[in-house]
Each structure stands twice: as C-alpha cells, then as structure tokens.
Amino acid sequence: MKLVCIGSGNVATHLSLAFKAMGADILQVWSRDVKRAGILAALTGSRATSNWSEIDRNADCYLIAVKDDAIASVAAELKEVRGIVIHTSGTTPLSILQGSGSGCGVLYPLQTFSASKAVEITKVPFCVEANSPHNLELVTALASLISPNVYPVDSAQRKILHLSAVFACNFTNHLYAIGQQLLEANGLNFDMLRPLIQETALKVQSSKPSEVQTGPAVRHDEQTLKAHKQLLEGSAEWSQIYEILSNSIKKAHP
Amino acid sequence: MKLVCIGSGNVATHLSLAFKAMGADILQVWSRDVKRAGILAALTGSRATSNWSEIDRNADCYLIAVKDDAIASVAAELKEVRGIVIHTSGTTPLSILQGSGSGCGVLYPLQTFSASKAVEITKVPFCVEANSPHNLELVTALASLISPNVYPVDSAQRKILHLSAVFACNFTNHLYAIGQQLLEANGLNFDMLRPLIQETALKVQSSKPSEVQTGPAVRHDEQTLKAHKQLLEGSAEWSQIYEILSNSIKKAHP
What is the per-residue pLDDT across A65-106, written as a single tens digit (0 to 9) for each? Predict the structure, then answer.
C-alpha cells in the first residue's frame, strides 16, 4: 500500500506512523509548512514537499489530515492523481472530495490525538465511508491495517458521532479544567481530582453512563445544590454551567 | 482499631470492607434498614442493628456514612459514646458533629463509589479534618490504614473539592450520557465513544486539562460550531448546553 500524507499535524503524524509500522509505504508528506513536512517525512522515511507539482501521482491512497476548512482546497489539487483520495474529518461530508483522484473515501478516527501522548491505535474506532463498494473495501482494508475496530458510517451519522465526541471529550475536558481552576484558586492540588476523573471514565467502559449517574442533582439534593450555587457566586459563567447541567441531570432522572 | 459503621450504602460498604481488610475490628453496623445493616454486618463479621440503644459505646471510631441531611440526627444519637465520631461527607461542615463522642472528625473519600464496581481504595484521596490536633492524628492514622493519599483539608476547602468533583465527575458523566443518547437515537453504538472517553480522562492524568483542550470551540471553528448547533435544533436543552460550554471554552482560549 503506497500512501501520500497530506498534512503534518497530530492526526497526520499518529496515522502515518501507524501505517508505516504496519508496513505501508509512505511516499511523501505534503504540508504548507515544509519544515513540519520534513519532520514527519524523516519519521516515516519519506520525502517532504510543500509544492503540489511535486506530488507523486501514482500512490494508492492520498490521506488528507488537514484542518476542516482546508480540505476543499487540498482536494482540488488532487484531481489528477491515480489513487483514492481520503479525508479524516468528523464533520466534512464525503462529497467534498468528489472529482478528486480515482475515487474518494473517509477514514475518521474517533479519538483525540495530542502531540505529547502516544495513543493505542488498535483501540481507536475508525469510521469509514467511500463513493463505491469497491472503494469502501479499499478504505476498510486500509483502516483494518491499524485497528480491528472499523465501522462503516455514512456522512450524516459521522456528523452525529463527531457531535457526541464534542460532548463526551471536549466538553468533559473543559469541565476538568473548571475543576482544576476551582482547586488552584483555593490552594488545592489538581492531583486530588485525578483518580476521580479516571474512575468516572472507567466506570462507563462497562456501564451505560445514564445508569451510573451520581451527585447531588441526581439525588435532587436541593440543599447541596444551593450551597454549591453560593460558592459559585463570583462567576456568572460557572454558575450558569452548574445550573444548566444540574437541571438537565434532574430532568433525566426525575 | 474498633469501629462502628453508621450506614449501609455504597460508601459505608466500600470503606468498612477496606478497613476490615486492613485489620480493623468492625464491631457493629447500624442502619435504619436492619436488613441492609445485616448484609454489611455479615460481610464484615460484625453485628447489625437499627436500634440506637444497642450501639456499643466503647468503639474507637464511629464512622457516619449516611445521606448528608441525616448526619445531624445520627450525630445526636452519638452524644454518649466514648470514641471519636467521624463523618464522610464532602459538603457537611465538621461543626455539625460538635458535642458528639469524645471528639469529632471528617474522613471524606474523593471518589465515586458504585455498588457494582470495585474501587482501588489505595488510589483514593482522603480528606481529613478534626476538632483537635490529637484527633486529627487519629483520623489521619485511620485513613492511612487504607490509602497513602491523605490530605488535611478544612471544611471550606472540602466544600470546594466537592464542588470541583461535581464538575469533573457528575457533570462529565452526564455529558457521556448525552453522547450515548445522541448515538443511540441515530442507530450508532455507544461502544464507539468509549475509547475516546477513556483517553480523555487518561490524558489529564499527566497533563493539565486547560493545556490539552481540543475540539471546534478551542479552534474557534465557527463553521463546525454552527453545523453542530443545527444538528441540535430538536433539543433546546442540549443546544443550550452546547452553546454555553462552547462559549466558555472560547473565552478560556481566546
């Protein structure tokens, strides 16, 4: 499998290293920033470029891992290639790739990638989609190289997955950050909260979150809810978040 | 160490089993519900009672693990005992125990306990407080029996800890539940979201949450934020949660 990687960020890096480790041949890394392309090219034993005219036209797959709003312009540069053009975005429809390459597909990893932290790629669910059954087989085979968890998901479902991931990952991380700030403002160490955060996430690995809800809101413990609102009087923003989420929990658990 | 356990719920069960395992002598379990007291008494090799007149007055510690609003009435029944009376609540001040036993303290485990899931008790942070340095030593020694993570925390700080735990645990679990419902309503399996949830919690074990925030809001990706709001048009509640948390993330990462 010959791959060209378009992009040099966290997703491009994690995916191309995983493909490389499974024996794929990374031909090139393209990035607007040729220095960053150079770093990933060195890591994957490939060539770096920021010049579209230098793109190898004979790869099997062109993996686009750039910001969502750059996908259309990148795809437009890949009209003439022989392989299949694949993006990795949660929200972007497959149709944005129409007319590029010999076909198009999506390979969306439902995971959060950081520069500093290794991810166990075999545990990552990959959502795949393509413009034909044959190309879906190809994208599925590509994803299966690095993870056993490959799911065919259409563009509409993928948007829902991305949205649910925002709730379960981006918003939860922000709530961790609010916890961190509450502690630090009161001379307490965020270390104290870390085991609780981990246990909360581990608990829903074998249970449904709606069935293991704890806290004052699910108990309709108005006295504690009131005391917490008083502690938050200094921040209209956090107070509002507290109220809305508590009311939503109470509504879900009447 | 001779203990009497007041309560028979999740916290009472996890703590008394941990103390028993570390060699403490559980004399009695008191519960309003004598059947539940009987189950925990059988597990800890102790006697069950729902009758205050039968309480052993010569234990070293009386550990209260009942609902917050029942602590005062329970403490009133423990005026005449010889040992120290300790509650395990995050929000209740130490002062509610004044006049009970030969002294009073708090031993608050900063963790979420479920009936169905074992907790690695040695990883749980215990917040301790007492009415005198001598009693603080005693409560610290008691907590240290089962966990190396024991922190002296006063009543005001403990309230903040409990509040931050609501944000980082109860609210995040509710956001998991919203993700679960979004998926299920669209024919998708919650399994797909589980690895992301775990990774999000694991990431902040070594990083500060504010430093590893991801998602459309932190990138100020207005196009995706707008698309997500459209997907949520059917639910005023989730739409409001999405907007408030996204705005809070944008404000924290300008």
Answer: 999 889 999 999 999 999 999 999 998 999 999 999 899 999
Angle between helices A172-185 and B194-206 (to 10 degrees): 30
Place of tokens 């609902």: B67
Using CA atoms, how far residue B152 sits from B128, B133, B158, in Å, is 5, 11, 10
Contacts A157 to B, Cβ<8 Å: 186-188
Strand B61-64 versus strand B84-87 pairing type: parallel
Which residue bears the tokens 């053009």?
A85
In CATH terms, the fold of domain A158-252 is N-(1-d-carboxylethyl)-l-norvaline Dehydrogenase; domain 2 (1.10.1040)
pLDDT confidence band for A201 (50 / 70 / 90): very high
Alpha-carbon torsion (B173, B175, B180, B181), positive or negative: positive
CATH topology of domain A2-153: Rossmann fold (3.40.50)
- Tell me which residue in B123, B174, B212 faces A245 most closely, judged by beta carbons: B174
Q: Which chain B residues are Cβ-neighbours of A172 within 8 angstroms? A: 172, 175-176, 197, 200-201
Confidence of residue B114 (pLDDT cuts 50, 70, 90): confident
Q: CA torsion, points B130, B134, B139, B143, in degrees to nearest 10?
A: 130
Chain mean position to CA B156: 16
Q: What pLDDT band is residue B135 in, cutting at 50, 70 and 90?
A: very high
CB contact at 8 A, B139 and B86: yes
In this complex, do A170 and B249 lie within 8 Å of one another by their Cβ atoms? yes
Instruction: Report yes or no: A197 and B124 within 8 Å, Cβ to Cβ.
Output: no
Domain positions in chain A are 2-153, 158-252
Distance CA A72, CA A93 (A): 11
Q: Which element (helix H / strand E) includes B180? A: helix B172-185
Tell me what pLDDT residue A113 has. 78
Give which of B117, B121, B161, B169 to mutate to test A binding, by max A Cβ within 10 Å. Answer: B169
Q: State the Cα torsion B92-B98-B101-B106 to the nearest 10°.
A: 30
Tokens 């920033």 — which residue? A33
Q: Rounded to 5 degrees, what are φ and ψ at B6?
A: -105, 105
Question: Which tokens sit at B107?
Answer: 């031993």
Collapsing DSSP to helix, strand or coil, A174 comes out as: helix
Give the tens place of pLDDT for each residue, A105-144. Answer: 999 999 887 777 778 888 899 999 999 999 999 999 999 9
